[in-house]
Amino acid sequence: MPRIRLTVAYVGTRYQGWQIQGRGETIQGAIEDKLARICGELVRVHGSGRTDSGVHALAQVAHFDVPESKRHIPWRQALNAMLPDDISILEAREAQDDFHARFSVRSKRYAYTLWTEPRFTMPQRAPFVWPVRGLDFEAMDQAAEVLAGTHDFAAFQNAGTEIKGTVRTLEPIVRAPGTHSAEWVFRFQADGFLKQMVRNLMGLLVEVGRGGLAPADVRPILEGCDRRKAPATAPARGLTLEEVMY
Fold it and tell me: Which has the closest alpha carbon to 112: 173, 158, 59?
């Protein structure tokens, strides 16, 4: 059966994440619903990984297999004509049989955006940022240096997913200006991420920026591998999946 690879962008605000669940709308569910209408049967879509409720994507990758008779359908145009405005197929192309959107992944990059303007948040940006005031960015950068490298990130994994291990390799965290003068974007790239790992790392960095923790406190939290000792999870709305590398 032909295997079709998709690159998908979406605003996750009103969805219960990527993966189909017992209730609520999901990105996977929306795409599978449209594929079923086109193919006349259930077509399972496999994503590169879950994104949580409220998390966005600029380039989620997914794949699905279709009958030979459907091979030459212009999938990008067909799906975009049916999907809601907050989901868009950026690219659709045939992939090799051994390509798998999840298991072929080499690394992923996420971006988390903070809004630092002390008086207001731009309404158009509100669904995509976490408003946080008075941050010490120098302290946050020092804390970020401790997190880079190959570590056991168990202290930054929320419960809910069965996995074989919690060791991951995190590239140096990059901080850069955002699209608005009040925004700062933190980019996280790794060979894999645990459940809500980026949001938990961001929660830690913000706590350091607020002065609730010192940069010197980060290593003991990291090496302690105890989620209860780490700060609270950052809100979902500031997080975007930017790129999946194969």
Answer: 173
**pLDDT, averaged in runs of 10, over the chain (246 residues):** 97 96 93 96 95 96 95 97 98 97 97 92 94 97 98 93 88 96 97 96 98 98 97 97 98
* pTM score above 0.85: yes
Tell me the pairing of strands 56-65 and 239-245. parallel
Q: Please, what are the domains in the chain?
A: 3-95 (3.30.70.580), 107-245 (3.30.70.660)
Q: Which helix (H) or strand (E) holds 4?
A: strand 3-10
Is 110 one of the annotated binding-site residues? yes
Please provide the distance, in angstroms rounded to a whole number, between the alpha carbons at the two ends of the chain: 22
Q: Any idea which residues carry the catalytic annotation?
A: 52
> Residue 24 contacts by C-beta under 8 Å, 6 or more apart in sequence?
15, 16, 53
Helix (H) or strand (E) holding 169: strand 167-170
Spell out a b/e string for 18-33, using b for 16 or more CB atoms within 10 Å of the CB, else e.
Answer: bebeeeeebbbbbbbe
Q: Are 60 and 8 in contact (CB under 8 A)?
A: yes
Neighbours of 236 (CB within 10 A): 18
Angle at which helices 197-210 and 137-147 cross, to 10°: 140
In the three-class reduction of DSSP (H, G, I as helix; E, B as strand; rest coil), residue 99 is classed as coil
Residue (of 135, 166, 176, 3) closest to 75 by Cα position: 3
